[in-house]
Amino acid sequence: MLVVRSRPHRVPGVATVPRPSRAVLAALSAALVLTALPGAATATATAPAAPPTAAAAPDIALDRLLAQLADFEAIADANGGNRAHGRPGYAASVDHIQEQLDAAGFTTERQEFTAGGTTGHNLIAEWPQAATDDVLLTGAHLDSVGSGPGINDNGSGSAAVLEVALAVAESGLAPERRLRFAWWGAEELGLVGSRHYVDSLAPDELASLTGYLNADMVASPNAGYFVYDENPEIQAVFADWFAQRGVTTQASSEVRGRSDHAPFDAVGVPVGGVFTGAGQAKTAAQAELWGGDAGVSFDPCYHRACDDLANVDETALDRNADALAHAVWELGS
Ligand SMILES: [Zn+2]
């Protein structure tokens, strides 16, 4: 996540009103089809059938998330201690993720841009099922700052998005909406990769982008449970998932405008996401709610060399990856 709050980047004349829910429309049309089936009336008269529900998302395994983080740390260790834009540790991170996605059956593509006089890359992976006119995009920034390996910021979000994508492939999901996944470059330089992606879209491509989910810092060691509040419908999908597990979530002003959802929000794409806190201190009330230490940053190693494998709350990582999988399944299928 960015240190400095970036100025909102709104495009004049573009409304940011939430679009109608595709999921709700799909559920309604599925219900209509079901009631039209021959024999449905007699079946419901004797034994009411359960309402149609989409398959539940699989559990994202914590050991696999931790193995991805260990790979990121090993990449940083072998490349000068970081995975920053323009450095070999970033290129190795892209290679490592792309290999796994290609092997799982994704169509992958690297998008080039320039930042700070150096070539950067976004990695885009497309699950080649469903029409391309209704796309749910899920993303995380893959670059670290120069001062450390970036395991919580943002190996954690990168690993969560990757394992959700791999779970889509492993479960053979045939979604209603097109599922696309992205790992952004040069976020730490000012959301450069995600802004470039948004700017590169033709009008019809932008119109087809009906949702963006972001994961930036989801394993903070003094974790909070924050859900983005830009879009109430997406917010509810995450918040309800946590509530069903006894975890109360809050909105956070700390992440607003400071990660890769901002360029999408600015052009009217409905956005959502999860966040466990960065440099702000946990309040006494929040410590009561979630445990951990009041008066201490959510991530005391934010943007420091100590943002390594030891800088991870495994419960927060596990919960947030599962919540992200739930959101992709719920909103996408
Ligand atoms: Zn950051």
UniProtKB/TrEMBL annotation:
Domain Peptidase M28: 122-327
Keywords: Disulfide bond, Hydrolase, Metal-binding, Protease, Secreted, Signal, Zinc
ATP-binding in keyword set: no
Superkingdom, taxonomy of origin: Bacteria
Annotated signal peptide: 1-43
InterPro entries, sorted: M28_fam, M28_SGAP-like, Peptidase_M28
Classification via CDD domains: M28_SGAP_like
Gene Ontology annotations for the cellular component aspect, listed alphabetically: extracellular region
Cell compartment(s), UniProt: Secreted
GO molecular function: aminopeptidase activity; metal ion binding; metalloexopeptidase activity
Keyword flag Isomerase: no
Predominant subcellular localization, coarse grouping: secreted
GO biological process, one term: proteolysis
Cofactors demanded by this protein: Zn(2+)
Subunit comment: Monomer.
Family: Belongs to the peptidase M28 family. M28A subfamily.
Protein name: M20/M25/M40 family metallo-hydrolase
Organism the protein comes from: Streptomyces radicis
Upper classification of the organism: Bacteria, Bacillati, Actinomycetota, Actinomycetes, Kitasatosporales
